[in-house]
Hints:
By secondary structure, the chain is mainly α. It contains three helices and no strands.
Amino acid sequence: MKSKILWVAFVGCTATAQEAASGELTDYTNVIIEEVDRLRNLVGRLVGSRKPLELKETNIHEVLEHVRSLVKARSQRKQD
């Protein structure tokens, strides 16, 4: 249940940022939302035994930097 609440909060926060963003930043927030959905589904499959998730604090700047690097790499591949 906690993971679902965190997911909803994270997507809501990202959607709010998306509303304030424009152009390229909107693309980044879309990637964030898609990746969070993908990870939520993956975690759901891995935790099928109903083991409680071990949550820890995460530096959002590190996560966003990782997403930025993924998007940058993807855009460079499309240009090549």
